[in-house]
Specification:
The protein has 407 residues and is an alpha/beta fold. The chain contains 15 helices and 16 strands. It has two domains: 98 residues, Roll (Urease, subunit C, domain 1), CATH 2.30.40.10; 299 residues, TIM Barrel (Alpha-Beta Barrel). The strands form three sheets. Strands 1, 2, 3, 4, 5, 14, 15 and 16 form an eight-stranded mixed beta sheet that branches. The longest helix has 17 residues. The radius of gyration is 21 Å and the shape is globular.
Length: 407
């Protein structure tokens, strides 16, 4: 088929006025001006009219399990208090609650234009009860081996068995050692080996809060005391920041998507600056969650200038108001208005595609890319199209995933 629109925002070159995209199966086979593509396909021509056709949005960090928790936890006085509160809430819920939350979360992601999500899955036993994923989904198995007293080998074995339960076209898999305060260095190293063997992406929560920072660098604070009360070994605390600690131990490297990275010290920036650009990790910023916790300003400019690939995710509805990535971009722009609208859109298209090692398949409209697309109305002004898209705050009414029109 050929899709025609007044504006085609490829994220891979110039914006096209009166552009068109030819789709065969689940792939884009040609992109150009509508007049030039008329001969490409004998299939149907779909004229989207006065809309901008663009790549579907990629949410680089989400917890669909907690989609029933919107507004359930008031902004806490401390990050540790929030951890304790969400753990308390989780104990009141059952599998049915979580299955409904995942279904509800998927629906909200689609509503706001997300066609790919990196979902952190804390309850792998739910996988056998879930139907096919409605959008392209990376299921990151959340692994913890400190608090639950599960041996590290058993955690990794559980991850591998978890993957066997899903064989759907839109599903892919990754590993998520939860955070350095809940996952041992052994678990990080085994996750690296497992990801290497099975070619999977890796992610972790890192340097999220000041309390985590002080736990590792100073061996003090509420999170340190809470983890100590759970009998977590604390010998790794009191010497380095969370990021420097994991990096210098070889637990993380350039393959990793590091979510949050809110609390960084000069030693962390010096370490990043010492690395070649090809050796830098990817960072996922969650603007709504960042605002909810009242973290210090995110170092977007400094990290970008170092060459770090910055992506945006929503996190969960336990710490943000919406699963809309465009809302997240508006929150980020309100905090850092110097960021261009085009650069904002890159954080939810080409940048996460690069982090997932799918830069030729996702996040752009180009021959060979997967046909994951959305369309939304714009004025037709090419100079303002990025800004108009970021400020679009209504549901997305046209979407294509894997070559199939779904709304």
């Amino acid at each position: 088929m050929i899709l025609k629109a007044r504006t085609v925002l490829t994220m891979d070159g110039p914006i096209l006025r009166n552009g068109a995209v030819a789709v065969e199966g689940n792939r884009i086979v040609a992109v150009g001006l509508a007049a030039d593509l008329a001969w490409i396909s004998p299939g149907p021509l779909i004229d989207l009219g006065d809309q901008a056709l663009m790549p579907g949005l990629i949410n680089a960090h989400c917890h669909l399990d907690y989609s029933m928790m919107r507004g359930a936890i008031l902004p806490p006085k401390s990050f540790t208090a929030w951890v304790q509160r969400i753990n308390s809430l989780k104990r009141t819920l059952d599998s049915k609650d979580y299955l409904q939350a995942i279904t509800r979360g998927f629906a909200e992601l689609k509503k706001w234009g997300t066609t790919t999500v990196c979902n952190i899955e804390a309850f792998p036993e739910l996988m056998t009860q879930l139907g096919p994923s409605p959008i392209r989904t990376w299921w990151f198995y959340e692994m913890i081996d400190i608090r639950h007293r599960i041996t590290t080998d058993d955690v990794v074995a559980g991850a591998l068995s978890f993957f066997q339960h899903r064989a759907n076209t839109l599903d892919s898999f990754g590993l998520n050692p939860h955070a350095p305060y809940t996952a041992s260095l052994d678990l990080y190293h085994l996750a690296n080996a497992c990801a290497e063997a099975f070619t999977m992406p890796l992610t972790t929560h890192l340097a999220e809060s000041a309390e985590e920072f002080h736990m590792f660098r100073d061996a003090t604070g509420p999170l340190h005391d809470f983890m100590d009360s759970l009998m977590r070994p604390m010998e790794d605390c009191g010497s380095a920041t969370p990021f420097t600690h994991l990096w210098e131990c070889g637990a993380i490297d350039a393959r990793w998507l590091l979510t949050h990275m809110n609390e960084l010290a000069e030693e962390d920036f010096s370490l990043l600056a010492s690395l070649p650009r090809s050796g830098l990790p990817h960072i996922v910023h969650c603007p709504g969650s960042h605002r909810y916790f009242g973290h210090k300003a995110f170092a977007f400019r400094r990290l970008q200038d170092l060459g770090v690939n910055i992506c945006v995710g929503t996190d969960s509805l336990a710490s943000t108001d919406s699963l809309s990535l465009l809302e997240e971009l508006r929150t980020l722009h309100a905090a850092q208005p110097w960021i261009s609208y085009e650069n904002l859109l890159r954080t939810v298209t080409v940048n996460p595609a690069r982090a997932l090692r799918r830069r030729d398949q996702l996040g752009k409209i180009a021959p060979g890319a997967l046909a994951d697309l959305i369309a939304l109305p714009t004025s037709g002004s090419l100079s303002d199209v990025h800004e108009e898209i970021v400020h679009y705050d209504r549901p997305i009414t046209w979407m294509m995933i894997d070559g199939q029109i779904v709304s």
